[in-house]
Specification:
Largest sheet: 3 strands, mixed
Strand content: under 5%
Number of helices: 11
Structural class: mainly alpha
Radius of gyration: 21 Å
Helix content: over 70%
Number of strands: 3
Distance between the termini: 68 Å
Length: 311
Amino acid sequence: MTEDNYSLTTEFILIGFTDHPKLKTVLFVVFLTIYLVTMVGNLGLVPLILMERRLHTPMYIFLGNLALMDSCCACAITPKMLENFFSKDRMISLYECMAQFYFLCLAETADCFLLAAMAYDRYVAICSPLQYHTLMSKKLCLQMTAVAYIPGNLHPVIYIGLLFRLTFCRSHQINHFFCDVLPLFNGRVSCVDPYINELLIFIFSGSVLVFSIIVVIISYLCILFMIFKMKSKEGRGKALSTCASHFLSVSMFYGSLLFVYVRPNSVKEEDKDKPVAIFYTLVIPLLNPFIYSLRNKEVINAMKRSIKKIL
């Protein structure tokens, strides 16, 4: 293989979902609607939390950052995906690919730590309410938020740096609706053995997911134990309903990430990765504002006060 051949592949074709014209139109409308609702829900929540002093608590600070990262995830993936529904070439350059993956990985990594921080915050609030302000001080809250963003930025930088050790000299096609790194490791695309890249993704992604999942599970188990000790059936029912919806969202998020990034032979299951990736890139950012905010009386009251001020 000559040096010229090695330098040929600097652009890739995103295969996407389908080539059927009618189905493409339906999917475009569905994903555009999801994108608009996601952006309005998440970006509307951020200024609401900033403006309302009553929402300047650790829980809502974490929630505001989660909304910001969900917006980042939606912006990284959806515009290019929507464009490709009606694009003839569906091309993306290697550097565009790296940028798209950077912002996606930043958002997903930060989300993992923020969800763990939110679970711990709820554990302290429910299990140690009298010590809440001592255990969850503003200083600790800011430190936990910083901890979410530091690995959030370092995590994608590692993977993008490792991409430079690969040479793309074979197929230009990526069997996905966005530029993930795993399809680039496929033997049909890379002509350099990607074993080191795959191993480090397994190690780093696995470490982030396992750590945050353990924190979430332990926190929710302690919360459930405390709920079952409640004497009021009505209070127990409300608490269980809230915990169930939170845990369902968290399970879908972590479960889809584990399926794609931390499983044997993940590179060989591209057709299965696409529908699963819809959950952590599109569905979860859409659902989070409804699960964590719009079912919350404090947020609803804050929205009503803000609307009254505007009118």
